[in-house]
């Protein structure tokens, strides 16, 4: 089992958290949705895995490169 | 029988070459779930079409003559679905397919023959790198480099590569030179092996981080696909080649159009939300515009704000570049510009018309972008687009702002620019523009802010673009495929029989 940190690809605000901790995610499944550049931008699981940790809360501002979640693959 | 002793000797030597590195090593290769060098060739070429050259080549040191069948690289020519191609298949069971003066000579001959005769070069890369001790010392190393054209790429023909095991040294270099690359998920691609790297830099190395498929598909972007098997890798190479001409003075082959090909594009209004705050996947739009099942994404895990693919419209090969709002809101960053550049080079070199789908808030600006040389990348992309002499079409779908509007084919940067009736073009997002131009923030004076947004938004519609004849037509999204098919029919570059100037053919093969 490897742990993979999901990072923000863009600066913005966490608008909605969609997935729950311990949820099994398919590749490309939505973890959370950020609001950035006046758009709702989804953060997707890069590979199949289990969501182990969420490191941000709804409404939180995040910077590009900031850790958002940890996936066990 | 006449020539009896010659026949016996010929059969013995042939059997020895075909036995490769021996039963034990071949079994080890099979146990890894990998095909051997010759099985890969069987999977690539039409049955019975392979002719091998260099079968009786062997390593130079006399002691190696019996231990180096084909000197570890199997080379020759065959047909893929009836079309000629050349192959270099590294045989990992013979001295780890390491590169020696003799097998590099074989590779060079096959490559030059492929170029001279206009057939694609296929590379099955799996090699430990330079052969030791043959290349040691001044004599060993100085013997290399006999071919001053070895690393020139003018893209007279396509190079495609599958990385099917450890690929270091020459196997890595020729992967970098290739137009399309597929890699097994358990393979490795790097300058040197993790072991050599660890010794050299005195640091513990995670092999997958150094050289794994995710590094190559997501970070460097050199590899187009990560796959689980050799068969899948080879099938992808064949699929890629099916879109391309065999050489640069030929048009891509035209395919039959499947029944019902126009149907998906009539559903485009269901794929793209009217609300601009909502994202969608540009890949689905591109698939709907292409003949069903023909969309073939390239570098799909890399720089995802820019989507690139080959596809077919009305049976004709096209290259599609789209900004993808699903990732980074479709804002183009330095990697996205590199990806677009590489894509333009491919299309320009092989006479493939380009279709650009624009829905972008602009370039992603910031300190990180500057650090990654974004301004240079932006202008490389722009320059590459302007140098492409193949037919170019663009569609402004929802929004397209600032310099990114031009980079995505705005106005005369494509031969014909269409605008969907919901297109919105301006110098930047109006919500940001109000603050920049008038210094008014929404939270301080909401009413005035909204007024000014409306003011900036005025004159930014599709009809304004068409009014100054930048857009040649304002269209219903559902008509997009019909328009593109008709434009492709018209823009045939008949004076040169569809062959472009290939001004980008000598551009770097990586970025």
Describe this structure as you would to a colleague.
The complex is a heterodimer of chains A (73) and B (511). Chain A has 73 residues and is mainly β. Chain A is built from no helices and eight strands. Chain A has strands at residues 3-7, 12-17, 24-25, 30-36, 39-44, 49-54, 61-62, 67-72. In chain A, the strands form two sheets. A four-stranded antiparallel beta sheet of chain A has the order 1-8-6-3, with no helix packed on it. A four-stranded antiparallel beta sheet of chain A has the order 5-4-2-7, with no helix packed on it. Chain B is α/β, with parallel strands linked by helices and 511 residues long. Chain B is built from 20 helices and 16 strands. Chain B has helices spanning 4-18, 23-31, 37-44, 101-117, 137-143, 170-176, 194-201, 207-211, 213-219, 230-243, 268-271, 282-289, 334-349, 367-371, 374-387, 402-407, 430-438, 446-457, 462-467, 480-490; strands spanning 51-53, 73-80, 83-90, 121-127, 159-167, 180-184, 188-189, 225-227, 296-298, 306-313, 316-323, 354-360, 392-401, 416-420, 424-426, 473-475. In chain B, strands 1, 2, 3, 4, 5, 6, 7 and 8 form an eight-stranded mixed beta sheet that branches. In chain B, strands 9, 10, 11, 12, 13, 14, 15 and 16 form an eight-stranded mixed beta sheet that branches. The N and C termini of chain B lie far apart (61 Å). Classes of the chains: A mainly beta (73), B alpha/beta (511). The interface between A and B is medium-sized, with 14 and 20 residues.
Question: Oligomeric status of the shown chains?
Answer: heterodimer
Q: Would you tell me the overall average pLDDT of chain A?
A: 92
Radius of gyration computed on alpha carbons of chain B: 26 Å
Biggest interface reads: A-B, 14 and 20 residues
The percentage of residues in β strands of chain B lies in 15-25%
User: What are the low-pLDDT stretches of chain A, counting only 5+ consecutive residues below 50?
Assistant: none
> What are the secondary-structure elements of chain A, in order, as H or E?
EEEEEEEE
State the secondary-structure class of chain A.
mainly beta
Q: Percentage of helical residues of chain B?
A: 25-40%
* Beta strands of chain A, count: 8
- The DSSP helix count of chain B reads 20
Shape of chain B: elongated
Rg of chain A, nearest Å? 11 Å
């Amino acid at each position: 089992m490897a742990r993979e940190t999901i990072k923000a690809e863009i600066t913005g605000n966490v608008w909605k958290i969609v997935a729950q901790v311990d949820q099994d995610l398919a590749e490309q499944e939505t973890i959370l949705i950020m609001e950035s550049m006046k758009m709702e931008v989804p953060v997707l699981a890069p590979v199949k895995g289990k969501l182990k940790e969420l490191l941000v809360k709804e409404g939180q501002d995040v910077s590009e490169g900031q850790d958002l979640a940890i996936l066990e693959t | 029988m006449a020539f009896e002793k010659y026949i016996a000797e010929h059969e013995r030597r042939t059997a020895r070459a075909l036995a490769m590195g021996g039963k034990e090593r071949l079994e080890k290769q099979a146990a890894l779930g990998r095909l051997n060098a010759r099985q890969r060739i069987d999977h690539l070429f039409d049955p019975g079409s392979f002719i091998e050259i260099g079968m009786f080549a062997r390593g130079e040191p006399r002691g190696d003559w019996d231990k180096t069948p084909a000197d570890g690289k199997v080379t020759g020519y065959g047909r893929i679905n009836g079309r000629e191609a050349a192959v270099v298949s590294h045989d990992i069971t013979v001295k780890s397919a390491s590169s020696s003066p003799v097998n590099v000579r074989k590779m060079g001959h096959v490559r030059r023959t492929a170029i001279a005769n206009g057939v694609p070069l296929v590379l099955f890369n799996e090699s430990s790198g330079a052969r030791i001790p043959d290349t040691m010392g001044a004599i060993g190393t100085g013997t290399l480099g006999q071919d001053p054209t070895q690393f020139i790429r003018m893209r007279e023909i396509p190079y495609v590569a599958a990385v099917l095991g450890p690929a270091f040294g020459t196997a890595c270099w020729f992967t970098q030179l290739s137009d399309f690359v597929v890699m097994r998920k358990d393979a490795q691609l790097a300058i040197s092996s993790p072991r050599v790297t660890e010794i050299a830099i005195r640091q513990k190395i995670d092999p997958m981080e150094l050289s794994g498929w995710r590094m190559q598909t997501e970070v460097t972007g050199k590899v187009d696909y990560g796959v689980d098997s050799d068969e899948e890798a080879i099938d992808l190479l064949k699929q890629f080649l099916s879109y391309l001409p065999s050489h640069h003075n030929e048009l891509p082959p035209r395919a039959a159009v499947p029944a019902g090909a126009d149907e998906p594009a009539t559903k485009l209004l269901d794929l793209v939300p009217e609300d601009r705050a909502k994202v969608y996947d540009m890949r689905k739009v591109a698939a709907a515009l292409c003949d069903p099942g023909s969309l073939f994404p390239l570098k799909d895990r890399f720089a995802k704000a820019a989507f690139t693919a080959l596809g077919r419209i009305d049976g004709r090969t096209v290259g599609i570049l789209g900004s993808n709002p699903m990732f980074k809101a479709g804002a183009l960053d330095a990697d996205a510009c590199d990806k677009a550049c590489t894509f333009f080079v491919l299309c320009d070199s092989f006479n493939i018309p380009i279709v650009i789908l624009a829905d972008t808030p602009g370039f992603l600006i910031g300190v990180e972008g500057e650090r990654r040389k974004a301004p240079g990348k932006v202008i490389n992309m722009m320059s590459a687009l302007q140098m492409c002499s193949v037919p170019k079409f663009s569609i402004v779908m929802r929004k397209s702002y600032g310099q990114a509007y031009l980079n995505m084919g705005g106005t005369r940067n494509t031969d014909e620019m269409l605008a969907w009736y919901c297109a919105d073009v301006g110098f930047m997002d109006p919500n940001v523009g109000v603050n920049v131009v008038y210094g008014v923030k929404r939270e301080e004076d909401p009413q005035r802010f909204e007024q000014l947004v409306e003011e900036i938004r005025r004159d930014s519609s599709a009809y304004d673009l068409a009014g100054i004849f930048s857009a040649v037509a304002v269209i219903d999204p559902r008509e997009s495929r019909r328009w593109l098919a008709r434009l492709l029919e018209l823009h045939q570059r008949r004076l040169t029989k569809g062959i472009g100037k290939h001004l980008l053919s000598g551009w770097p093969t990586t970025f």
